[in-house]
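Predict structure. Chain length: 465.
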Amino acid sequence: MSSQHASQNRFLTVPIGRLFVANALPMMVMMLMSGMLSVVDAAFLGHFVGPDALAAVSLVFPILMVTIALSTLVGGGMSSLLARQLGAQQHDDAMAVFAQAHGLAVFLSMLLIAAFSTVAGFVINQLSGGQPDIAQMAYTYLAIMVFASPLQLLLSVHADAWRNEGHVGLVALMSAGVTLANIALNYVLIVPMDMGVAGSALGTAIAQGAGLALLVGLRLRGGGILRMSGLWTYRWIGAWRPILTLGAPVSLSFIGIALVSATVITTLRLTAGSGYVDSVAAYGIVTRIFSFTFLPLMAIAMATQTIVGHNVGAKHYRRSDAALRMALVVAFSYCALVEVTLMIGHAWIGGLFVTSPDVIGQVGLILVPMLSLYLFIGPVLVLALYFQAIGRPGRTAVLTLIKPFALGPLLIAALGFFVGAKAIWFAFPIADGIIVAAALGVVISTQRHRALNTGFGLSLGKQTP
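Prediction complete.
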């Protein structure tokens, strides 16, 4: 790599601490704004439409997680490739990956729409517990979100491209503006216009379209390294395998979250009796809270991924190791703060969303066990995206897929059927403890591998002096 290239790439020259703050902080703001939308939207539905609306949206939460998983599959897989290609100044290869990500985003969204049209009605009717009003609200909300999924996936592609080009501040500013507009729009559609859950979904779809139009418009005006004109030069179809391979572990973790949520809802349906609707509404509130607190963690992990990817691509391994260590400390500290805060407020926090004392009480009962080992969630996620950034998706898979695809569903079902509905929430800390042990095993194995080959750090490869 030339010294001229290194001087032009801030990811390779700026001190790691300053670089981490410059990338993670704007992304945390962006993610917090997105999470705030989810929380405020739940409060609008709970206070102005009712607990049934929250229950309806909660029923389709697993399917909504599938749309997020697809966005992460394309955006995350593309990011792993883009960061290393831009770090190595392989701009033609980066442009080809950018174009292929567009084709993959459109293809996957069309598959999702086809699947929804085939099975959604039957699935929602089964989960609604024979309550047609809740089933109708759930179907309406989900239909709008699924048919808007091409906007969501393409927005992920463009936002991740700007982030990997070093314009994370731009993405954060765009996200904050669009989110504030989205909150205002949702209020108008839900309250004065009385559109209920349809207003919530429409507001989100309109906001995603506006965000995508803004990012595309800036690139059309010459911003960024990647050019819109290249989308007509490079193929959209084919060569999707590297994106799918690198994006799959983290993406499948979101599919796993959907599986866990579906298992929770199904287990409650069979074990909670007359308290089913209240339990589902409370679980929906908790998922909104955890989504809000999880998004800054994702920002920390994604910033780490970008910094590590550029430096691994440029063979600056000491810098990538330093970024990892800093991210682990920040993630652990953030999770500890979240755990303490929510533990203190668990008894009253449900009142921010609903007025029903039964639902508020259920929220508190759910939060306490689920928070037990929350402080380790962030470090595990950072490690997972670190391994994705250096092109080791197998290690990422170990850290992200075992819990949602095996441990979570099995523990939830076993505790629900053999102990009772209130016991299923203890499945989460048990699974977290097992994953922490697995993460320690992966780190020890990696360090032993490095000791045999280079004797330094966690990055895989030869160290630069």
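Summary: Residues 8-453 form one domain.
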